């Protein structure tokens, strides 16, 4: 080999060895957030699993039982912005510990409730407890991850939440058979308290405050994150509310979660009523779309960060992936509506929900990009709109299905996606909402 080539090889090897490894304390805490997201989803989903015995025990009808879900989302909705602001003021570690402990306590109280009125209050306060989780996670990600890692950071908690629908029913049913419907709530309450203790031990607001972090990883994060870590003022809400980009990121997320909640609420019923799946077949078929969205949330976060590193364009890294997801969502719903084979219908629905994972994960990364020092407030605002989508979707889509049929409902749900696509061109994620010097 020629001397010049030898020198080049040595240079490449040295450069490779000098790069910081991706595995570090921050990614270990990302794994904890995956578990937190999984438990959070299971805690809110176990109500549907124990519906029949719980309704019998407390003498509830279907309307009364349905109100419990709405009350959860009402509490969840109103806690979004306050949760983000509190995480900015007092630190994400404290707020996350309080949130998990709070919702775990009210999970246990769901089993202990002896009347319907008490249960309504408990489910509302349970929603309040879960509300701060995602905005507080956004604040945590702002301090702990580099600029080009925000997509992967956001995907950890989200992927845990979307993996929940895959395994929650089986686990909840097993507990139900062994310990009764109250045992389901008590078991998940214990899990929540356990993960809050782990977070108390492991979590810190900033890498500068963590005794376990290596100097190399701390330096890497602090030199390459998008915020200074010193600002302690309140988010400029008056300025935000006059900014069309602030409204655009919120309203497009309303559309995203509206569609996600349609699947969450009605997919099992749709498969049995419109596609004649048996209960056993439905249990298998309904898991595929949720496996798909779990995968795309994880892969989409990583891909978004790679694109950002290579192009230094957040519109390409976040916006292009979101738009791609919306387009494939439209394709999936369209062909699902006209599919004659039940299992091909599941394939197209899997494509649709899987594609929705791309705008979900890029929305959270974008909220972090836009908010920077105030990522908690911007994320809380965005998820407030998402919560409204979660409240309205079951009612509106249920009415369409009842009055116009399932296939028409699928096709109608394509229309709001056009609005979300338009709004992404208004978001302009390459610039923060407030310049850093302000």
From TrEMBL:
An example molecular function term from Gene Ontology annotations: transmembrane transporter activity
Topology class, membrane: Multi-pass membrane protein
Subcellular location field: Cell membrane
Keywords associated with the record: Membrane, Transmembrane, Transmembrane helix, Transport
Annotated signal sequence range: none
Primary location recorded for the protein, binned into one broad class: membrane
Positions of the Major facilitator superfamily (MFS) profile domain: 29-431
GO cellular component, one term: plasma membrane
PANTHER family: FI19708P1-RELATED, SOLUTE CARRIER FAMILY 17
Name of the protein in question: MFS transporter, ACS family, glucarate transporter
Biological source species: Peribacillus simplex
């Amino acid at each position: 080999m020629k001397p010049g080539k030898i020198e080049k090889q040595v240079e490449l090897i040295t450069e490779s060895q000098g790069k910081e490894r991706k595995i570090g304390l921050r990614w270990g805490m990302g794994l904890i957030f995956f578990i937190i997201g999984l438990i959070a989803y299971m805690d809110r989903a176990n109500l549907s699993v124990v519906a029949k015995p719980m309704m019998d025990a407390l003498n509830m009808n279907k309307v009364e039982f349905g109100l419990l879900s709405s009350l959860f989302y009402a509490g969840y909705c109103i806690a979004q912005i306050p949760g983000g602001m509190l995480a900015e003021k007092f630190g994400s570690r404290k707020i996350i510990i309080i949130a998990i402990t709070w919702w775990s306590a009210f999970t246990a109280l769901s089993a202990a409730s002896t009347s319907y009125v008490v249960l309504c209050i408990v489910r509302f306060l349970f929603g309040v407890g879960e509300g701060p989780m995602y905005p507080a996670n956004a604040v945590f990600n702002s301090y702990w991850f580099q600029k080009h890692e925000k997509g992967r950071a956001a995907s950890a908690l989200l992927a845990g939440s979307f993996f929940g629908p895959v395994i929650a029913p089986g686990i909840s049913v097993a507990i139900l058979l062994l310990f009764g419907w109250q045992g389901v709530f008590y078991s998940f309450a214990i899990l929540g308290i356990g993960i809050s203790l782990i977070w108390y031990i492991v979590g810190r607001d900033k890498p500068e405050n963590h005794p376990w972090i290596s100097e190399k990883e701390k330096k890497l994060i602090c030199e390459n994150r998008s915020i200074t870590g010193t600002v302690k003022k309140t988010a400029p809400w008056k300025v935000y509310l006059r900014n069309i980009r602030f409204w655009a990121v919120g309203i497009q997320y309303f559309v995203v979660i509206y569609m996600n909640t349609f699947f969450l609420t009605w997919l099992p019923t749709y498969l049995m009523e419109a596609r004649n799946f048996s209960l056993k077949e439905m249990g298998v078929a309904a898991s595929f779309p949720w496996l798909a969205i779990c995968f795309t949330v994880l892969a989409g976060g990583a891909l978004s960060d790679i694109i950002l590193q290579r192009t230094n364009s957040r519109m390409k890294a976040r916006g292009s992936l979101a738009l791609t997801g919306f387009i494939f969502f439209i394709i999936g719903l369209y062909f699902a509506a006209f599919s004659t084979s039940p299992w091909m219908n599941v394939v197209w629905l899997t494509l649709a929900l899987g594609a929705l994972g791309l705008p979900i994960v890029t929305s959270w990364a974008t909220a972090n990009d836009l908010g920077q020092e105030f990522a908690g407030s911007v994320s809380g605002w965005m998820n407030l709109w998402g919560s409204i989508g979660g409240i309205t979707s079951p009612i509106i889509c249920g009415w369409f299905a009842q009055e116009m049929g399932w296939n028409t409902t699928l096709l109608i749900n394509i229309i709001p996606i056009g609005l979300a696509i338009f709004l992404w061109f208004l978001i302009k994620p390459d610039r923060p909402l407030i310049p850093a010097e302000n």
